Amino acid sequence: MTGRGLLVDQGPPRLHVQIDGHGPVLLLAHGFAGSARNFNPQVRALRERFRVVRYDARGHARSEAPREATAYTPEAFVEDMQRVLAVAGASEAIVAGLSMGAATALRFALADAQRVRGLVLVSFPPDASAADGFAAVAARFAEAIEREGLEAAGARFVWGPASGLDPRGAALVRQGFLEHPPYALAHVLRGVIARQPRLDDLAPALGQLDRPTLVVVGEGDRAGRAPGERLAALMPRAQLVVIPEAGHVVNLDRPAAFTSALVSWLRDQRLDRQHG
User: Fold this and answer.
1) Which DSSP category does 102 fall into?
2) pLDDT of residue 9
3) Under DSSP, is residue 100 helix (H, G, I), strand (E, B) or coil?
4) For residue 109, which of 45, 29, 16 has the smallest C-alpha distance?
5) What is the CATH number of domain 4-127+197-268?
6) Which of 47, 49, 235, 275 has most Cβ atoms within 10 angstroms of its Cβ?
7) What is the mean pLDDT of residues 248-261?
8) Is the Cβ–Cβ distance between 206 and 238 less than 8 Å?
9) Which one, of 272, 91, 111, 90, lies nearest residue 205 by Cα?
10) Crossing angle for the helix pair 199-207 and 100-111, nearest 10 degrees?
11) What's the confidence (pLDDT) of residue 8?
């Protein structure tokens, strides 16, 4: 299964999964309106030492997109992560995610810590109390998608002038955004993004999550900087890394710096070795 795309068929929806390399399993979960392709730079750097598993979330890119709004919940996204690890034959993994994927990775770890060797939380999303995060505008964003279409809604909420993206970055974000079914993104916004919990409400559970954790934030990420710093403060074995001159999509904004920080942490935590 190395280097090929495959589908997880056990239970709907079908999920597009890619597996590269050999070694300890490193699972990568992308953010809202992203795809497994977002981690191409990291896969090239990591596949010599790790078995890198990545997938398109339900409703995104090459995975199936159920029509029912009830199919899009945080619990369903955690179950999908479990299914992906099962098809990879992994009883445990280093679990990593970006933004929405980081929220899923944390929920997975809180539900099943014994399967998590290490946790990497990148650009962790703020809850609805933060005015500059997607959770706060999720309902309006979903309505705009349904009323105006992906192009107009995306220009307003994602890659427009207020995003701070340069023209090249805006073009790349737009290209990726437009490949997803509009109804699925609207369902994800209402059913998953809008339900992002307050970190302080999770504080007791986070304080008991005894797993090595890397928290990564971009220096220029207005939405993700504060929750990342708070998350690192609440978790007993967390290390915070701030990537200079990076925005929210850290791994694409500054791929070399992000990958270097990730590889260094994996090595320091001895997670680049097979367990047992």
Assistant:
1) H
2) 58
3) helix
4) 29
5) 3.40.50.1820
6) 235
7) 93
8) no
9) 111
10) 40
11) 59
Please tell me whether residue 272 adopts helix, strand or coil conformation: coil
- Residue 53 is inside which H or E element, if any? strand 51-55
Q: Is the peptide bond before 126 cis (omega within 30 degrees of 0)?
A: no
Provide the pLDDT for residue 5: 56
Give which of 274, 10, 239, 268 is closest to 122, Cα–Cα: 239
Q: Which residue has the tokens 């999509």?
A: 249
Are 163 and 170 in contact by the 8 Å Cβ rule? The answer is yes
Domain boundaries, given as residue ranges, for the chain: 4-127+197-268
Report field, pTM of the whole predicted structure over 0.85? yes
* Strand, helix or coil for residue 112: coil
Is the Cβ–Cβ distance between 98 and 30 less than 8 Å? yes
Provide the residue count of the chain.
Answer: 276
Mean pLDDT of the region 35-64? 96
**113-131 pLDDT per residue, tens:** 999 999 999 999 999 888 8
